[in-house]
Amino acid sequence: METVNTQSCTLFGYSEVEMLGKQIDLLIPKRHQKNHSQHRQNFNDNPSQRRMGIGRNIFGLTKSGGEFPIEIGLAQFYNGDKSKTLATIIDMTKYVKITEELKRSNKELNDFAYVASHDLKAPLRGIMQLALWIEEDIDDFADEDTKVNLSLLMNRTKRLEKLLEDLLDYSHIGRKEGDIQEIDTKEVVLNIFDLQCPSHDISLVCQEDMPVIKSSVSPFETIIRNLIGNAIKHNNRTDGVITVSSKEFPRYYQFSIKDNGPGIPEQYHQQIFELFKTLQPRDEVEGSGMGLAIIKKLLDHHNGSITVESDGKEGTCFTFTWPKQS
Predict the structure, then answer these.
(1) Is the pTM of this model over 0.90?
(2) pLDDT higher than 50, residue 302
(3) CATH code for 6-91?
(4) What CATH code would you report for 178-326?
């Protein structure tokens, strides 16, 4: 080491005199020194600006023998006719600690969502069955208000069951999703539209030359199902139209699902992707408020993205990207 700055001395616990003239191996744990010599030689043979430590465990060694995670930036420059290497070292201790804490918190949240959803489904089904028996028992003599209230009870119980199912789906994102296979995206769109059982008031227009992609089936179908389901559920017209189209780019496909429904005001364009968000009263439109949050999390996991376009008066278009290397 020819020169060191004050921060380096503080970081490793040495004085400037103790570091000058020493090999860089002084700052590297012994178990890594052999490999580091090879890495150093590779850099000298093929110099370029690069960062070391991203996605790998690289550690620095202090004078007292302690180790801490680091990231190293390397750059080569010339001082006269001599080649020099500049190493910038960043202490990653706080970053690693925060990352590990986030991983732990996410795992706890996912485990809680799974356990809570799974354990609540059995008693909820019992409530739904009891409500159905009560409805049958009082059908002949109950007044209209009682029947309405009982109907609300059953609808809200069904909504809660859907919410629990969506919570389970949300907690499963990022776990094993199945093998990669070819997916005919047009066939997926047509099948999902038919299964949604739309009324005759809504029709589908699907681009003819939709791509055949290679991906896990489940996450892609989930995204299409939620977007088409929303377009059907929120369309209040007697001449509803859903238009599905796609474009191909070098590294990803782009899919758009457009409807001619009431639209989404611009101030809600970000809010709708949050958990449990819905813009209409839940007794008017059934739903958990998690569909778009599930889509957002799936796309984040697969390095995709989603945007919404709407003037809030007529029509909404959701556009999402799906990487070719899923």
Answers:
(1) no
(2) yes
(3) 3.30.450.20
(4) 3.30.565.10
